[in-house]
Write a structure and sequence with these properties.
This protein is α/β, with parallel strands linked by helices and about 700 residues long. It is built from 25 helices and 20 strands. The strands form five sheets. The chain has a six-stranded parallel sheet, with helices on both faces. Strands 1-4-5-7-6 form a five-stranded parallel sheet, sandwiched between helices. The chain has a five-stranded mixed sheet with strand order 16-18-17-19-20.
């Protein structure tokens, strides 16, 4: 019912009016854009309305409140559902420096420009664009995956910061998800891990609408979801009618009373629910309805058929009196409590402030390991483990774990008090993800979104399993940390299934991702310094299994050059430069050895260490030219990976020593000789480019 003639709807009529406002805003936005998915917002409007209006602890006037409940729309194609809620709840926009503005996060103009350039209403929700979007979703499964990290973040912060009488953290995480989220492998990983950890603050709302883009869901999906989740250790409840607000309320109350496991609410809905014509069609799911169908649907809702983007009188006021008032009161109570907390626990309060503002504790970079020159050296996974433990002791909110490979990745935090994060013991800083790379990546993103600095680790070859999460971290502009060991054919006997070849080039192609491949132990220390200070870029730290020499820094340039991405490690004394050798990781030492032999021959060579192309590209032209003078065209790169991309630095006249095929299973010394990663091969390439000058 639409209010008219100053007669305002009340009670159930007002609920229906608000729900239909959400629906029609979604319909009109999709129709105007001629693109999008109107069906899911139509079917799920009552569910989202009930949650936000009656249960979500969220203050639209302060969307950065630390203890707010999080709402994640994992079925991101239903983005207009979230945009309509953000608009009607009058959520405020937060600017780039973190200040809350008077501007609406989603204005009516944004809704009218759904899926258009430079609007805050992109086709799928993006957290760095639209305040109120807690995490970027789109690829199905990423939202439910990230929700595990957010729920872990709530539990971890509660265990580490709450004090008797001062519950600073107890927020819940609500996730709207679809058949697609549960079909994707990451959804199963996420549900399994959440059940194991007994994340009682996590509630997934499963939109069981029996339809996919291909057609009826039973063409491809016939499992018993409820039984599956019971097997995972979840509490499962069902709402048989998405329009039944009382039944929905009872389901949310059941979640709030469940203290020993996560909750799945299965909601039976219909795509485009309420439409008498295209109620269950693929068209309502993935395409605009069309002008005629829009009129029929609006008529069914009792809506003015020709009205567009209508928000009837009383709707905004109703949201202000619901989620707005409740959120304001809850935040005020919390703020008063936190003021007292700050007085009684100033050190903890200061840590929270630093976390939220991406600040580091004073002296965080003091006493980090330095490594003496050593011809035999150490694997960078080993030196990284030592540096990580030193950094983590100084940054109490640096936590993380490995996908069942902590011993190999050297990512276990071993200092006193680090502990393990497990069900019933949520204070630990060592996370155990099991063999679940997909959800580890997404969980790291979720944790990072709460202000925690989180890392996840595995073998570099398995970064492929995490690629969607790495990409979303880069897109969201968040400083997630991904640690990858066993970075090349140096894996040896494990063979080509475990030997990464193309991964370095693939990750370097990703915008806003910082890839770091240190060339010795002291470069590892400098890499961790870079990582700790990042605010808006995720990192892939790529480390070796095999030992490599620790360079003599009294003879060669200091490793602090890592901060510029690439630097002159060894140089010819004066005069005209003949040749530049470039390397990363374990191959850097080959360049150094070749340099020494060339120097004995009278060749004026330079060695450039290039641990991060991305950071190097951010330097000014003068610095880049000082490291790689354009006049010096005789150049050789050495890297035990695909050579794709190196031509940018070696040019048409340069030589690139790398991998042009998959690896092989054999001892490392045999592989190095077989694939040409020897000093002799570097010298051979050097002489070739010198003779071609």
């Amino acid at each position: 019912m639409v209010a008219s003639d100053q007669v305002l709807a009340t009670g159930a009529q007002l609920d229906t009016l608000c729900i239909n406002t959400i629906r029609t805003l979604a319909i009109d936005a999709v129709q105007q854009a001629n693109s999008g998915h109107p069906g899911a917002p139509m079917g799920l409007a009552p569910v989202t309305y009930c949650l936000w209006q009656n249960f979500l602890r969220y203050d639209p006037a302060d969307p950065t409140w630390l203890n707010r409940d999080r709402f994640i729309l994992s079925n991101g194609h239903a983005s207009m559902l979230l945009y309509a809620m953000l608009h009607l709840a009058e959520v405020r926009q937060v600017d780039k420096i973190g200040s809350i503005t008077k501007e609406l996060s989603v204005s009516m103009d944004d809704i009218k420009h759904f899926r258009q350039l430079n609007s805050r209403t992109p086709g799928h929700p993006e957290s760095h664009i639209t305040t109120g979007v807690e995490t970027t979703t789109g690829p199905l499964g990423q939202g439910v995956g990230a929700s595990i990290g957010v729920a872990i973040g709530s539990k971890w912060q509660a265990a580490n910061f709450n004090r008797p009488g001062h519950t600073i953290f107890d927020f819940n995480v609500y996730v709207m998800c679809s058949d697609g989220d549960l079909m994707e492998g990451i959804g199963g990983e996420a549900a399994s891990l959440a059940g194991h950890l007994k994340l009682s603050n996590l509630c997934w709302i499963y939109d069981h609408n029996s339809i996919t883009l291909d057609g009826p869901a039973n063409w491809s999906f016939s499992e018993d979801v409820a039984t599956r989740f019971v097997g995972y250790g979840w509490n499962v409840t069902r709402v048989t009618d998405a329009n039944d607000l009382d039944m929905l309320s009872r389901a949310f109350e059941t979640f709030l009373k469940t203290t020993d496991r996560p909750t799945l609410i299965i909601v039976d809905s219909h795509i485009g629910y309420g439409s008498p014509h295209k109620q269950d069609t693929n068209s309502a799911h993935g395409e605009p309805l069309g002008d005629d169908e829009v009129r029929l649907v609006k008529k069914f809702y009792g809506w003015p058929e020709d009205a567009k983007f209508l928000v009837p009188e009383g709707v905004r006021e109703h949201f202000r009196d619901g989620v707005g008032r409740r959120g304001r009161e809850l935040r005020a109570q919390w703020s008063k409590l936190f003021s007292d907390y700050r007085q009684k626990y100033p050190q903890l309060a200061e840590q929270l402030s630093q976390m939220q503002h991406h600040e580091l504790p004073a002296g965080w970079d003091k006493d980090l390991p330095t490594f003496p020159a050593d011809a035999k050296g150490v694997a960078t996974r080993e030196s990284s483990g030592k540096v990580l433990n030193a950094v983590a002791q100084k940054i109490p909110w640096l936590i993380g774990g490995s996908a069942d490979l902590a011993t190999s990745n050297k990512t276990t935090l071993k200092f006193e008090g680090a502990g393990d994060f497990q069900a019933g013991n949520y204070a630990g800083r060592n996370l155990h993800f099991g063999v679940r790379e997909h959800v580890m990546g997404a969980s790291v993103n979720g944790l990072t979104s709460t202000g925690i600095r989180a890392f996840g680790a595995t073998f570099f070859n398995f970064s492929d399993y995490m690629r969607a999460s790495i990409r979303l971290a880069a897109l969201m502009e968040i400083p997630s940390i991904f640690v990858y060991t066993h970075d090349s054919i140096g894996v040896g006997e494990d063979g080509p299934t475990h030997q990464p070849i193309e991964q370095l080039a693939a990750l370097r192609a990703m915008p806003n991702l910082i890839v770091l491949r240190p060339g010795d132990a002291n470069e590892v220390t400098e890499c961790w310094k870079v990582i700790a200070q990042l605010h808006e870029s995720p990192t892939a730290l790529v480390l070796t299994r095999q030992a490599m020499p620790t360079l003599d820094r009294t003879k060669y340039a200091p490793a602090s050059g890592v901060a510029k991405g690439a630097y002159i490690l060894a140089d010819a004394p004066g005069g005209k430069l003949d040749l530049i050798l470039m390397g990363t990781g374990s191959e850097l030492s080959l360049c150094v050895e070749a340099y020494e032999k060339l120097k004995a021959e009278g060749v004026k060579a330079r060695v450039v260490s290039m641990p991060s192309w991305e950071i190097f590209e951010k330097q000014d032209a003068a610095y880049k030219d000082s490291v790689l003078p354009p006049s010096v065209t005789a150049r050789v790169s050495v890297e035990m990976a695909a050579t794709f991309g190196w031509a940018r630095y070696t040019g048409l006249k340069g030589k690139n020593i790398g991998m042009r095929q998959f690896g092989a299973s054999a001892p490392l010394k045999d592989l190095l000789k077989h694939f040409g990663f020897t000093v002799d091969k570097v010298l051979e390439a050097a002489h070739e480019v010198l003779s071609a000058k």
